[in-house]
Amino acid sequence: MFGFKFLGKTHVPHNKSTADMAPVRMTSLKEVLLPMAQHIGAPATPIVKVGDEVKVGQLIAEPAGYVSSPIYASVSGKVVKLDTYLRPDGKSVPAIRIESDGLMTVQDGITPPTVDSLDSLIEAVRSSGLVGLGGAGFPTSVKLDAVKNGGIHTIIVNGAECEPYITSDTRTMLDQSELIYDGISLLEKYIPSVERFIFGIESNKPECIKEMVRIFQDNPKVSVMPLPSLYPQGAEKVLIYNTTKLVVPEGKLPADVGVLVINVTSLATLADYVMTGMPLVEKCITVDGSAVKEPKNIIAPIGASISEILEFAGGLKEDAGKILFGGPMMGIAACSLDEPISKTTNAITVLNVKDATEREATACIHCGRCVEACPIGLNPTAFSKALNYGTEEKMARLEEYRVNLCMECGCCSFVCPASRPLVQNNRLGKTALREYNAHKASLK
Amino acid sequence: MEKLIVSTSPHIHTKDTTQGIMRDVLIALTPAWITAVVFFGLKALLNIVLCVGVSLLSEFLFNLITKKKQTIGDLSACVTGLLLALSLPTTANVWHCIVGSAFAIIIVKCLFGGIGCNFANPAITARVFLLIAFSTSIVGGTLTNFQNPDLVAGATPLEVIKSGDVSTLPSLVDMLIGNRAGAIGEVCALALIAGGIYLIVRKVISWHTPVIFIGTVFILSLIIKQDLSIALYEVLGGGVILAAFFMATDYSTTPINKYGKMVFAFGCGLITVLIRFWGAYPEGVSFAILIMNIISPYIEKWCAKKPLGKEGK
Would you say the pTM of this structure is higher than 0.90? Predict the structure, then answer.
């Protein structure tokens, strides 16, 4: 109404106490469990068998199709079991369990790939095992492949890191700014249609903004855009709108409006692979939360279990109520301490019993805070009410109010004074509508 | 660490609660009910205690009899009772208070599903009910202690204006501090505005509704009467300020979206003025809000925000 407004206005706590802690590397661990599906797409196919000796960076599973990603051994040791892993989302996936020999011996013959064209860059990204490290886990090579259709004019680097507690992207920007520089140089060289690179960084990270401005001061194509420290700045559609004012239409991808969004750590990892040839085998993760004794950033091998990571981090000061992969706004609750971190894990947040205990939901008082909070402009309480109707009416309402546009950022549930499970209901609604439409389509 | 809690995100929540919001409303109404007791004495206090007490009791008993979960802890029944008491003059007797409060809670609120489900504002509906059922004793107001210590009935400023002889109107200063005839809680504009500002600061309500409601009444009165002081009396002389801050901002019975709230507030102001100048009653605030309550769902639908990226119908 009064000119341009930023989307996203939910004041979540920041709790970025680990922002100035350089990560410590975790090397000695007993074993890792590497699920074959740490990405969106087909699970990778294991190419090792029980008893095989493996080294760090050795390919142990090949991508099974176009939308898939390879898996590399993250420790040296012996394959002890071809296991299955029940992911927190309820899917059971194959997994490779490797017993570490504690030496972290690196695979022989790891050399930088030859990159001299967009195709070879995409091929390199594909073999690096890189997936969207912001949390989505979409294979980066597939995303880059879409560039070949042309028309990409803007690349947005996502350094918003709007989740409470997490500072792993902050550390990437501070500790690996050269890699970020190299990454931008690669993209600039092989995607000539790109006119501008925009770094979107929340204003609660002034040191990151300063560092990015510093390393890119000579590149006029690169701009750094401070974003308000209001959740969810890092959500893709919100980020695109807030940095470029472009709106991604319903059912379309950012590429359809000429935009590519890449997480800042993904960018650094891409550059690292092109420079060294070492695939994605470790992650910087933030270990924090109300039950953690000494919050810190840790570089851990992918597949390390929560219990080993927490032990390395210094343990807990009180009983854990809830353990999350990721932050408290969109993180996924783990069922046991034996669960491994994956490529997309950027934090382990341990909440104490008090923080983890949720209030009982009471009646909706129609206060409209969810409507105000929704960055997309949806009416979350209307979805919840729609679920009470019979199938036809329910689907008509879910469709009309566009439940499919919900990106599950959780603002509505966060602000609800009646503690209603709003985003949870949105998920139910989204799934129901998708299945209903698929069923209807199959009848035709 | 025997059992980990597993649930879907988000895992943290605001500290605000329904009870906290209602407590804020009660705090915001405190200046108004204290000034009511100052101006109208113990009779006002009796009405307030009765209305709040009967409201709580009605909800308690309704939940008990219908075997529902007890909800009086959310304090919304207190708010309803207090608002009803404040919108009645001291001529309302014990039975009016009891019947009105029970009607508000049981008929208007609980029978429609309790908090958040009622389509009309319970306090206002109960006041309108009392007005129609017992019109002679509810309409208008009594003089304050300072005008006449015997709580005799006196013409409210709006009734004076309606009668056409404006020479007996209280001074504007008396209108602001509340030394004029009227319902006990509507007279002191300063106390109500202080409470309203508290609610805005606490983000319980947004400024749009009261500003647009009061502004509409003021501007339309000014246009119709071509007299600045009459327009000011129109704003201060009836229940507009109480209603604009505390009743037209009720969550359940107003549109959920911002633009809807604006349209709602404008409609309230418009209907208030229409009733005052061309209707049979000297005051139209209650009817205005009640009518707008009924069309609120439609306003909400028409004023819904277009979701980002929405395509097609």
Answer: yes
